[in-house]
Amino acid sequence: MSSIRMPITTAARKGISAVTAAASDSRVMLTRHGHVVAVVDSAERLDRDLRTVREASAAVLDFYADRVSERSAKFDLDQVCARVGVDADQVRKRAGLRVARLA
């Protein structure tokens, strides 16, 4: 995906309408002295990116759950989550949501 680097002074001169219009096509990175200080992005692209991150997180959890289930030694959920640095309550909540969707 392409992005546009734009100094804040240019963005201020163009106005918020022009910056948001540019953000509908490309992510706009606002800069100050050459350093990115803010990003303007479309809501659709942001939703898509967040969905991708959530799906990737779920895939990682599924992978680790599969790896743990293949071992001869069995661990409970709290032990697995502690080993991989994941909040066990979040996993339980996510599992509950998936079960609710299947029902």
Brief write-up:
With about 100 residues, the chain is of the alpha+beta class. It has helices at about 10-15, 15-25, 45-70, 75-85, 90-100, and strands at about 5, 25-30, 35-40. The radius of gyration is 21 Å and the shape is elongated.
| Average pLDDT, all residues | 87
| Number of helical regions | 5
Shape: elongated
Low-confidence stretches: none
Give a written overview of the molecule.
With 103 residues, the protein is an alpha+beta fold. Helices cover 66% and strands 17% of the residues. A hairpin with a 2-residue loop joins strand 2 (27-32) and strand 3. The chain is elongated, with a radius of gyration of 21 Å. The chain starts with a strand and ends with a helix. The mean pLDDT is 87.
List keywords for this structure.
66% helix, alpha+beta, 5 helices, 17% strand, 103 residues, single chain
Q: Mind sketching the topology for me?
A:
Layout: E1 3-7, H1 8-14, H2 16-25, E2 27-32, E3 35-40, H3 43-70, H4 77-84, H5 88-102
Parallel strand pairs: 1-2
Antiparallel strand pairs: 2-3
